[in-house]
């Protein structure tokens, strides 16, 4: 009896190992990148082979990864004192890890999602991500339809990401959705590049201070946009009015929890009445007064809820209101 049970068990193991490659690929498509790169290749040779198929990497979701012994090689080194204090149980994927996933996709990736890095200014988590990794990805993944770039609470990194987008967006002819655009001085130029190169573009998520220059560029360059998410932004009443008036094909506009306009303003609600999904709950006018002094951005930072004690000047405008290179061989 025991011998029969052993035979059945061995048969089960063999069936998994010899599972049709097409079936394995269908299963692996549902797995995260961490499992695909760090776990699956070590099960058996057939699984390793299936894990290299580009179809498995059409969706690249670079989630935060568990900081464990097996994944330390795939993350930027964390100071021992931070590990000792258990400050980070998860870390962003490193540049090397990103390159492995990109290389395996062979240019077939249509969806790329980075996590949001909501750390404070002095937090070393900001140091994990290299903008060169994003440039490497965009250079090789021209079929992208959905792109969610990393969002940082530290503005200079947002500026660097926008500069990368300015350089690379001409390659993304199939782009339909972009998030989360960091609203700094280069944002209007990014939006204009989208107008020029991305004819099927229909959805934008932005975060930060929506200046008049940015809102005007949205209206001018993206009048047919269908989905616009400005949740938690600082957005002036008139700029929202302009967006509502100029983007007549909006199907979703999320302007909830914003600052500098009232969510229950009658004019806003009237102009938004044709939009299938309009959200403005929690949006209020605060008492921040903006001026044209380029040397005094304190009010701007207050409106965003950001501590300006370590302020780094990121805006060149004087009036912001007015305007693995190769794959790893596991086996």
Automatic annotation (TrEMBL):
Coiled coil: none
Pfam families, per database record: F-box
Family matches, as SUPFAM superfamilies: F-box domain, RNI-like
Domain of life: Eukaryota
Gene3D superfamilies to which the protein is assigned, alphabetical: 1.20.1280.50, Ribonuclease Inhibitor
InterPro entries per the UniProt record, alphabetical: F-box-like_dom_sf (IPR036047), F-box_dom (IPR001810), LRR_dom_sf (IPR032675)
Ranges for domain F-box: 16-57
Record-given protein name: F-box/LRR-repeat protein
């Amino acid at each position: 009896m025991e011998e029969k049970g052993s035979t059945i068990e061995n048969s089960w193991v063999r069936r998994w190992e010899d599972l049709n490659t097409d079936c394995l690929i269908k299963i692996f498509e549902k797995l995260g990148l961490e499992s695909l790169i760090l776990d699956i290749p070590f099960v058996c040779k057939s699984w390793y082979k299936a894990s290299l198929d580009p179809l498995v990497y059409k969706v690249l979701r670079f989630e935060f990864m568990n900081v464990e012994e097996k994944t330390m090689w795939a993350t930027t080194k964390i100071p021992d004192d931070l590990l000792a204090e258990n400050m980070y149980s998860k870390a962003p994927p490193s540049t090397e890890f990103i390159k492995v996933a990109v290389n395996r996709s062979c240019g077939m990736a249509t969806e790329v999602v980075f996590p949001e890095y909501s750390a404070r200014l002095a937090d070393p988590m900001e140091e994990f991500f290299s903008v060169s990794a994003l440039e490497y990805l965009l250079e090789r993944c021209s079929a992208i339809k959905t792109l969610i770039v990393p969002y940082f609470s530290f503005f200079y990194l947002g500026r660097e990401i926008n500069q990368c987008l300015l350089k690379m967006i001409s390659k993304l002819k199939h782009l339909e959705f972009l998030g989360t655009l960091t609203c700094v001085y280069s944002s209007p130029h990014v939006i204009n590049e989208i107008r020029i190169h991305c004819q099927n573009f229909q959805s934008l998520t932005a975060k930060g201070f929506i200046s008049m220059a940015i809102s005007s560029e949205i209206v001018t360059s993206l009048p047919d946009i269908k989905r616009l998410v400005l949740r938690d932004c600082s957005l002036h009443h008139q700029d929202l009015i302009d967006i509502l008036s100029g983007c007549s094909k909006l199907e979703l506009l999320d302007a909830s929890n914003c600052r500098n306009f009232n969510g229950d303003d009658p004019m806003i609600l009237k102009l938004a009445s044709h939009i299938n999904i309009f959200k403005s709950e929690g949006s209020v006018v605060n008492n921040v007064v903006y001026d044209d002094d380029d040397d005094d951005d304190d009010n701007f930072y207050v409106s965003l809820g950001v501590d300006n004690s370590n302020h780094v000047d990121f805006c060149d405008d004087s009036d912001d209101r007015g305007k693995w290179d190769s794959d790893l061989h596991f086996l």
